[in-house]
């Protein structure tokens, strides 16, 4: 017997914490979420806020803000008085149709999932759990991964090593960047 939650397995609706890649992935897992965390380690393109499902709160993640992101989810959950679903999206590049795996985005997404688990939000999809495990295993090498990855090397080749250094500085920032606040259905 198929349940409503199994009708579209790619939406990962049975999980509170979901993970997917790029704009199409954001649409797949974001339709029934309340909060979307956009994970773009190199910020190749701005987060396409207007192309994402309406009502969602959208946060632009950094490694330095993952604890605040987890606290924001808890606050949103308290405000709503019920379980709040989160879509964690590894942006990829280009966001419309990512070309390969952007390891820096996956590790950033994993850091977000780990921070959510640390505050008790741990009903994660297998995809989210795998990203969290990748981050846990490579936590000490994230900076190296940023510069050694395909996209990091491409950025250095196109814009110079200072562009990678600037991306790393932004990635480590502790600023919580809420791009759009949650709006309940009317």
TrEMBL record:
It comes from the Bacteria. GO terms for molecular function: 2-phosphosulfolactate phosphatase activity; magnesium ion binding. InterPro entries: ComB-like_sf (IPR036702). This is 2-phosphosulfolactate phosphatase. It comes from Microcella pacifica.
């Amino acid at each position: 017997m198929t349940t409503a939650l199994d009708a579209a397995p790619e939406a990962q609706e049975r999980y509170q914490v979901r993970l997917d890649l790029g704009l199409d992935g954001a649409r797949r897992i974001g339709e029934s979420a309340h909060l979307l965390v956009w994970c773009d380690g190199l910020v190749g393109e701005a987060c396409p806020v207007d192309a994402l499902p309406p009502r969602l709160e959208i946060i632009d993640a950094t490694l330095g803000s993952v604890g605040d992101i987890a606290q924001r989810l808890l606050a949103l959950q308290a405000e709503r008085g019920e379980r709040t679903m989160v879509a964690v999206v590894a942006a990829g590049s280009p966001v419309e149709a990512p070309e390969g795996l952007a390891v820096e985005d996956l590790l950033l997404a994993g850091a977000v999932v780990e921070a959510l688990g640390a505050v008790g939000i741990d009903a994660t999809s297998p995809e989210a759990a795998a990203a969290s495990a990748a981050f846990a295993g490579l936590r000490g090498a994230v900076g190296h991964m940023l510069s050694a990855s395909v996209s990091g090397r491409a950025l250095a080749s196109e814009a110079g090593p200072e562009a990678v250094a600037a991306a790393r500085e932004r990635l480590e920032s502790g600023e919580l960047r809420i791009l759009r606040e949650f709006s309940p259905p009317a």
